[in-house]
Amino acid sequence: MHENEFDREKAWRLLCAYTAGESLRKHARAVEAAMRFYACRFGENANRWGNIGLLHDFDYEKYPDKHPQTAAEILAKEGYGMDFIDCILSHVDSCGKPRDSDLRKTLYAVDELCGFLVAVALVRPSKKIADVETKSVIKKMKDKAFARQVSRTDIIRGAEELGIPLEIHVENVLNALKGIAPELGL
User: Fold this and answer.
1) What is the rounded CA–CA span in Å between residue 173 and residue 112?
2) What is the pLDDT of residues 92-128, one digit of tens each?
3) What is the Cα–Cα distance from 165 to 159, expressed in whole angstroms?
4) Which 3 state secondary structure label does DSSP give 162?
5) pLDDT of residue 129
6) How far apart are CA 4 and CA 135, in angstroms?
């Protein structure tokens, strides 16, 4: 592991250098929070796991057709280690990197779910994540027209790969996002 993999300020600066859009920055923060939650659950380093969450899509805005391969190139130049880079590559099936660790499984499991939870919060009258309940998330997942760009298959498979029942996984990530609700504008 490389020292800068634990440096949150460096990760934030890198994200901001490549991502101007507020919604993608908020998504990165949401995934960071969920990764930190699970790092604590698995007894791992929350800073490193959080930085992987923060940087998992940092190249998407500028290089959507080359994501996350461009991220891998940039991270290598910035001195991040191959395990860190391979973890980010593993969250996209087409990269062919196995999800063979709790870290890799977690990134995949929280990515789409974070986006879905934000979408559920935004259709609440209050637009507050605090008002979102697990049962309403599960119900919304069955509505194919709602947030149709979010893959329910990925959400379900992510929970299965983690070995956590879907309802508990949703509750875990929901609690992580509730902890940073002001930063997400929710």
Assistant:
1) 11
2) 999 999 999 999 999 999 999 999 999 999 999 999 9
3) 6
4) helix
5) 97
6) 39
> What is the C-alpha separation between 5 and 53, in angstroms, rounded?
11
Half-sphere exposure of 146 (CA within 13 A, CB side): 19
Preceding amide of 68 cis, omega within 30: yes
Per-10-residue mean pLDDT for the chain, 186 residues long?
86 97 97 98 97 98 96 96 96 93 98 97 97 97 94 96 97 98 96
Picking from 116, 101, 104, the residue whose alpha carbon sits closest to that of residue 68 is 104
Q: How many CA atoms lie within 13 A of 142 on its CB side?
A: 4
E strand segments, 39-127: none
**Dist CA 158 CA 164 (whole Å):** 9
* Rounded Cα distance, 74 and 128, in Å: 35
Which whole-number Å values give the CA distances from 170 to 47, 144, 183, in the listed order?
Answer: 22, 18, 20
Please name which of 43, 82, 42 lies closest in space to residue 162, comparing C-alpha atoms. 42
Phi/psi for 164 (5° steps) reads: -120, 130
Instruction: Dump pLDDT digits (tens) for 110-119.
Output: 999 999 999 9
